[in-house]
Amino acid sequence: MVASVSSQTRATVDGKFFRVDGRKFHLKGVSYGPFEPAGTDGEFASQEQTARDFAQIRELGANLIRVYHVPPRWFLDLALEQGLRVLVDIPWDKHLCFLDSPPRRENARQAVRQAAEACKGHAAVFAYSVANEIAPDIVRWSRARAVADFIDELVTEVKRIDPDCLCTFTNYPPTEFLRPQSLDFLCFNVYLHDQQPFKNYLARLQMLADTRPLVLGEFGIDSGREGESRKCEILSWQIETAFRAGLAGTVVFSYTDDWWRGGRQVQDWTMGLTTRDRERKDSFRAVQKTFRLAPYFPLERQPRVSVVVASYQGGHTLEACLASLERLNYSDYEVILVDDGSTDSTRQIGAAHPQIRYFKHEQNLGLSVARNTGIAAATGEVIAFTDADCRADEDWLYHLVGDLLDSGFAGIGGHNLLPPDDSILAAAVLVSPGGPAHVMLNDRQAEHVPGCNMAFYKWALDDIGGFDPIFRRAGDDVDICWRLQQRRWKIGFSPAGFVWHHRRSTVAAYLRQQSGYGEAEALLVRKHPEFFNAVGASVWRGRIYTAAKRGIMVRRSIIYHGIFGSGLFQTLYAAQPLGLLSFFASLEYHVLVTLPLFVLSSMVRPLFSLAIASLLLSIGVCIAAGGQAELPRDKCRPWSRPMIALLFFLQPIVRGWARYKGQLVLEPMPPPKETLESESLRSGHAPLGIVAYWGSAPVDRIQFVSSVLERLEKDGWPNMSDVGWSDYDLEVLGNRWNHLRLTTVSEEYPDAKIMIRCRLRTTWSLQARMAFWSALGFELVLIGFVSTWLPWLPLLLLSIPLFAWFLVRERRKVRSLMVILLDQVAKQWNLTRVRDGGKPPQKDQN
Q: Is the pLDDT of residue 470 over 60?
């Protein structure tokens, strides 16, 4: 339902949309004027003509008009009487190199101040646009960062006078790279007349808008050049596409062909929905029909959706969660609450909502088991998941399911935004590291969506066996996304399908959450080693969208301007935060650099200064990260940034420690289920670096390797297969100390005979590297304490060979088990392992 626009309440931002009097306000607008001056009020029509125009605009179904000059007060009063809001563009000399001239800059400031004074406090004012389409060559001349900073300065000037107003800057494709930070919403003028490019560009703009509303500030068709019939068709699908894409509103250019610009009447453009005499065109009726349907265009179908909420001790936020789920703008859905052994008020809250299906675990079995309980009970074709500390936007399922149906995705997710009523500390946690985030591969496809806002087809979840029960506290969402993608299915992202998600409200709660994430990462490393680096940190292929800065920005972004700055779509290639600097705040840096320096400084005094410098470097990186954090204006206090810096310092230590602890305590994987070792393996003398298999019938090497992978999965061995960049076919996490890499090659012999050779190479695991270097460091420190090498030299010389002998023995164990598994696979293909260095049997060579 659309809010009553005659309300005396101003519009406010509400996530990806706007609200008036507590109800959503979707912009359905037209541009209005400028006109030949009719009096002392500038480029506006007379009051009588304006009243007639407003009545016709309301007949159109519009609720907003966009004007390009500051309107007089009577104009705003008349708009409010007619139930219209006004988007005010503030004119100034933006077509000149304004940043080169202090007087021009001051004139711009004065223009926005006068506009704010003229319209201050008026309920008809929807928002101010402090600039409209700054030419790309002027931006290139003045530098994009300087122009963006000046736009922010103008917004500050307006809000100083009219603090309750909304502000934007109307951009367009040639300067899409401009990134002002203080805008309440993004507004873009887009003139694309082909549907798929238009749809693709709106998806791109949604990524640029991120968590803010996106408004299509201008789009239109010239009746003379395109024809009225084509104009009707294009405007209809443009409006529908925009609202289906989750935009907060659209503004058609323009209401009438009557258009005064540059001191003259424009005669060669007929962009209006009415003629200069205000006669309705066919496009007026086409837009009128489409506006009546907007913003909720019917979905192609409405599959039944089961919303699963898993709750453990979530009673303090559960009531608000369930209440929001009861108000969803979707016709066919059910809500399933799974109480995972809670001892708080969860049961009572569930009982107070009889229309919600309630399931109880008598003990806490973990998040994945709770979600699997919901899947088993679900009757929907689609299963959506959110958390007990979330509130769903009323259009959550409408957008989530709509985008899922409009794609080939098996699952989809959306934003999780900070609730406006969340605490000041929660806002600091929002911009601190480690929060739930989505990872995007492109403008539509995600690599990962957070568990508090995701939905999947039930068939996809059933096919992969649901959630893995080993993930009790976290990591289940990452695992499910990766497993789906391993099956070659894709996951999408719905910008408008968002939930409000409370962040942790105390430092202790935040650090407990990060510890749980670290434990989950240890499990993910074991299950999906291909997604982690050598120290167990996740390596994402896509771009991470989060309010927290992942690293420190030290490089400038690059803008593609086109030849001589003439590109119609000029793109910003954003510089990535320098991850190396975040290493200085990591647990690894503290353990491998800072701590040893402090220990050694007790023996070598000059090292104490170096140790202090190392610690100060870590602190400095965290302070810089806190300084770069983009806090909501109303959630920033003097202590906020120091708190963020502290969280940046503590989070990598707590999460890293939990991850390493989890990796070190995990039990080794079981050996293959069939362990009938051959005579040579039991003897312990057979070479196991290369084994070969001989067959009298042709066998495809790729099929052989695929069979090895299937057997590894069946026996529960974590493995990583080649994706095109490795010089080995697969890697197996054999035991605590060694990983094994398998490379295969095939040789063809006469009479269709074949030899498949397998090379087995082992590398140290993370545990082995840590154990070796820790032991070596301990011995060196111990030697330093006694100030002489001689008494400890035999221990040092003996310990290294002993450790090496142990690793060689463990390496052979891993290789032996792998050879057994290869033997079993070879048997399936009627292959025989050959001796004598992999030579084919003499009798078969000829």
A: yes
Cα(411)–Cα(1) distance, integer angstroms: 28
Q: What is the pLDDT of residue 558?
A: 55
| pTM for the full predicted model | 0.81
The whole-number average pLDDT for the span 575-591 is 71
C-alpha–C-alpha distance, residues 365 and 602, integer Å: 48
Q: Which of 724, 764, 720 is nearest to 742 (CA)?
A: 720
pLDDT at 837 over 70: no
Summarize the confidence of residues 779-789 as an average pLDDT: 57
Residue with tokens 């919303």: 307
Q: Which residue matches tokens 């090498």?
A: 789
Task: Name the DSSP letter for residue 68.
Answer: S
- Separation CA 41–CA 53 (nearest Å): 17
- The CA distances from residue 224 to 257, 275, 508, in Å, are 11, 12, 66
DSSP 82: T
Q: How far apart are alpha carbons 699 and 712 in whole angstroms?
A: 20
Contact predicate 764/738, CB 8 Å: yes
Extended strands (E) in 227-313 = 249-252, 260-261, 264-265, 305-311
Helix (H) or strand (E) holding 545: strand 543-545
Q: What is the CA radius of gyration of the chain?
A: 32
Lookup result for tokens 């009719």:
38
Max Cα distance, the chain (Å): 109
Angle at which helix 195-209 crosses helix 228-244, to 10 degrees, equals: 30
SS3 747: strand
Between 213 and 448, where is the model more confident?
A: 213
